[in-house]
Amino acid sequence: MNAPDPGTPSRPLVEARDAVLSFGQTPALRGASLTVNAGEIVAVMGPSGSGKSTLLHCLAGILTPDSGEIWFDGQRVDTLGETGRSTLRRDRFGFVFQFGQLVPELTAEENVALPLLLAGTKRAAALKAAREWFERLDLAGLESRRSGELSGGQAQRVALARAVVSRPEVLFADEPTGSLDSFTGEQVMELLIDAARQEGTTVILVTHDPRVAAYAEREVVVRDGKASALAPDPVAS
Ligand SMILES: Nc1ncnc2c1ncn2[C@@H]1O[C@H](COP(=O)(O)OP(=O)(O)OP(=O)(O)O)[C@@H](O)[C@H]1O
């Protein structure tokens, strides 16, 4: 349902306009602007402490900038109240973080079903929808395990299933492979990108790893709290 119509020209879906945000005396964003079109897969790169996660959190309506504007699908996000932003996050966004942050008391399939249960889907239907993702993400047979009984790569794929089970329009991923070895990280990235392409999901991916960023269609660099398109590689040009 979310798959882009190839005949439709790209349209801006997620946007930061001149976002400024400080944590006390520490400036994190100093006028960051970024536009991501519907269906795009964008990697946000940059040095440690440059403001990547802060920008992602602003775009996702987790943080509100001190000034500037955040837009999603033609709607101002930064001026919404906490309730409006949390509804947006629940209904239209998915999240994957460095450490999957699964609920340890729940089974893998209950973790995946959680966003649907929170949105009011009946338990049987939520678990059925969750189970479909176990096959797709190479997790079949692990439905009843708890997070302590999963490998890091398996847990991160369960976290990915949880992020996409409600078919979000935007998937926000912050160092989704940061806790994994490079081989396992590549498997997770391949599954993440395949799932996003099949569903037409827009992906905004924070990473410091060029191998992870290479899965994206476009790279944006954040430096000193400002975002810019990656300069062309001088060797390649
Ligand atoms: N909750 C917070 N309280 C205080 N300062 C913060 C907080 N979060 C981030 N910062 C500061 O804001 C700046 C930007 O941090 P941010 O986490 O956005 O950077 P980053 O580029 O994602 O870094 P990394 O790659 O190391 O994760 C840094 O100077 C950081 O120390």
Explain this structure to me?
With 237 residues, the chain is α/β, with parallel strands linked by helices. It has a single domain (12-229), classed as Rossmann fold (3-Layer(aba) Sandwich). It has helices at residues 52-59, 82-92, 108-118, 123-136, 152-164, 182-199, 210-213; strands at 12-23, 26-37, 41-45, 67-72, 75-76, 93-96, 170-174, 202-206, 218-223, 226-229. Strands 6-7-8-3-9-10 form a six-stranded mixed β-sheet, with helices on both faces. A four-stranded antiparallel β-sheet has the order 2-1-4-5, covered by helices on one side. Strand 4 (67-72) and strand 5 form a beta hairpin. Helix 3 packs across helix 4, helix 3 packs parallel to helix 5 and helix 5 (152-164) runs parallel beside helix 6 (182-199). The longest helix is centred in the last third of the chain and has 18 residues, at 182-199. The model has no long low-confidence stretch (mean pLDDT 90). Residues 23, 26, 28, 46, 48-54, 208 line the site of adenosine-5'-triphosphate (ATP).
